[in-house]
Structure prediction request, 422 residues.
Amino acid sequence: MRFLYSLSLLLLMPVALGWLMWRSLRQTGHSDRLGERLGSSPLLSGSPLIWLHGASVGEIRALAPLVKAVHQRHPQHTLLVTSFSATGRHQAQALFGGRALIALLPYDLPFCVNRWLKCVKPTLGIIMETEVWPNLFAACTRRGVPLLMVSARLSPRALARYRRFPRLMRRALQQVAVIAAQSQGDADGFRQLGALPERISVGGNLKFDLQFSDNLLSEGQALRASLLPAATVIVAGSTRENEEPLVLQAYQALLAKEPDCVLVLAPRHPERGAAVAELAKAAGLVARRRSAGRAPLKAGQVLVLDTLGELTHFYAAADMAFVGGSLVPLGGHNLLEPAALGLPVLAGPHLDNVTDIAELLRAAGGLISVADAAALGQAFIWLTSNAVTRKRVGQAAQQSVIANRGTLLRTLELVEKQLARR
Prediction:
């Protein structure tokens, strides 16, 4: 099965590399790093190396507390952080450039991963959430490199997709030393895919342990004072295609009742910024892209956030947050970041990717679920006109995040156990 998998990837490789190059140019303005895709590594110091991997921007951000803690506890080790996406690499460089080497993960072909491992020689590999690379995992096993999957999760969609390749997935997952699942449901899913039960534990979600810089709140307030002077600031983060028109419809309903507001619309893929701004203008709104300037917004206007790495600062400047990928059937995105900053969190009905987090926030009273654009508009109106309620919902969201921290310490214990065996 792995031979057929490798053959398929080899046949697709020209198309895949071309697509990755095009995507990198659109998202970051820079071409993809072909050498890293083919297995070249950063310049290494020769000291023992711990490798940490996150698929893209969200996973890289979730790795931040772990990277910081491992760096502090094991200064004798070089840290290498990889991502599969160009935007993930860009985020990793911004977050960890002073603590770790940064690279793209090589393409999962035997000659690429073998070349990469021969150069890197990791002591330990740590995979954030769920990235299954059969050839890479097999090559790590041959070299005696233990792999940890931390905050591992399986959405219903991912579980169904992996089930199409039972033998391939079973073999790959059995080469992982420890799978620390987010929840019991995730652990059960990994068992169904063939992971060894004795290697599976429930460790919680590392995203609850997210850490912000000490000056984030003050920077957020400074951003608000200079750019968003309206009475109420709404941030719609990680929105997707076909979802922005629904958010704009809800915003227009709000403006009819509460005109002293501004909307920050942050598409999941910033390269869509121009198209999103045109949608807002077509709806009769005044819209501007963040990349076009820093003049203050007037009440009733829309700012399209088409830059990388600024969403957290805009959350810190906001009064409430809608999290995208949830009014359209894409499973939802990161609910925890705005919740941790004490914002009321709004989301649509499609939360398959974040089910456990959504349930915790909803039970605490920190998440407001809406069925459609009309309900989102009503929720905007309700929160805008009720400052006390807005504060109460935001505090409930924040307390829920605080109450569920602790995964970082459990993850560090797993890391220490693996390093002690080396």
Q: What stands out?
A: The CA atoms of residues 178 and 414 lie 8 Å apart. The chain has 18 helices and 14 strands. The mean pLDDT is 92.
